[in-house]
Amino acid sequence: MKQYDCCLTIVFPHGLEEIMIDHLLDHPELASGFTTYEVEGHGGATVYRSTNEQVRGRARRVKMEVVTGREDAQTLIVHFKESLRSREIAYWISPIAEFGRFA
């Protein structure tokens, strides 16, 4: 059984959502499931893609979370860096103490 010991979180511009999702769906051996939801980005490195975002001071982003193994998370990061080089994509890996299902 595969060990799920980390959560790979990736935050990226809304326009990349389908590309990111398709990439994970093409690699079920690395990500058997994942969650995405809309968030808003703030900060000095944030790129605003519309006048509305500039006025509001926040940018539309998508946050993707993948609970997986550390080695698979690193492989996904390499894949994404090779195919989607962008300073607008941020990621981090957090440890998972336990992962399971209720049934």
What does this structure look like?
The structure is a single chain. The chain is α+β, with helices and mostly antiparallel strands. The chain has one domain: Alpha-Beta Plaits. The protein has a four-stranded antiparallel β-sheet. The protein has helices at 17-25, 51-56, 70-83; strands at residues 6-13, 35-41, 59-68, 90-95.
Number of strands: 4
CATH architectural arrangement: 2-Layer Sandwich
The biggest sheet, with number of strands, parallel, antiparallel or mixed sense and barrel status, is: 4 strands, antiparallel
Runs in which pLDDT lies below 50 for 5 or more consecutive residues are: none
Assembly form of the protein: single chain
Level-1 CATH class name: Alpha Beta
Strand order of the largest sheet: 2-3-1-4
Helical region count? 3
- How many distinct folded domains? 1
Keywords:
4-stranded antiparallel β-sheet, alpha+beta, 30% strand, 103 residues, 3 helices, Alpha-Beta Plaits, single chain
Give a quick summary of the entry.
The protein is 28% helix and 30% strand. It has three helices and four strands, in the order E-H-E-H-E-H-E.
